[in-house]
Specification:
With 177 residues, the protein is an all-alpha fold. 84% of the residues lie in helices and 0% in strands. It has a domain of 98 residues. α4 runs antiparallel to α5.
Length: 177
């Protein structure tokens, strides 16, 4: 059960983390604006905007495929009954890199590229696992429950047919005579 948000935000540590994160996000926005102005002065406004749009399109293509690969690896592992926390951390790092690359701004693009390269990915995965290892175990248990309960079993198909026979109706797909 999640704690009440008002109680959660009254802790001095939680307030410090919240405002530190807000400050870092604000600094990222300032750095993005500063870099965009500098690049626009040197290259021209239209070329700077085209470069920004180009990085977003390239990121969507490359990282979208990478995210799909990570999700497939996690799904196959869940079906096989194996839990690898590092796969979840890599997925989180790839999604974070994608968000940074898709948002406008050169500073976010630089951070996204650094996060997508192997050294940045390993650092992010290490920090992510320090913080979320227990939560990942709970997520894995929920996901495996969903994977195994999503596939229809022969018992559920037989039960559906029996219910239709009891009602005396035909399935909706059957042709009417």
């Amino acid at each position: 059960m999640l704690p009440n948000p008002l109680i959660y935000m009254t802790s001095r540590d939680q307030l410090f983390r919240f405002f530190s994160g807000l400050l870092l996000f604000g600094l990222l926005l300032l750095a993005d604006g500063w870099l965009l102005v500098r690049v626009a002065r040197r290259w021209g406004v239209y070329l700077a905007l085209a470069a920004e749009a180009g990085t977003a399109i390239i990121a969507a293509v490359i990282i979208g495929s990478s995210i799909h690969t990570h999700l497939e690896r996690i799904r196959r592992g869940s079906i096989a009954g194996t839990f690898v926390p590092y796969d979840y951390a890599r997925l989180a790092g790839t999604v974070t890199a994608a968000v940074l690359l898709l948002l406008p701004g050169f500073a976010g693009d630089i951070l996204g590229i650094l996060l997508y390269t192997p050294p940045g990915r390993y650092l992010f995965a290490w920090l992510f696992l320090l913080r979320f290892r227990i939560t990942l175990q709970e997520l894995y248990e929920y996901y495996t429950l969903e994977v195994y309960s999503a596939a229809p079993t022969t018992d559920s198909v037989d039960q559906e047919r029996n219910e239709q026979d009891e009602v005396g109706g035909q399935p909706e797909d059957a042709p009417q005579s």
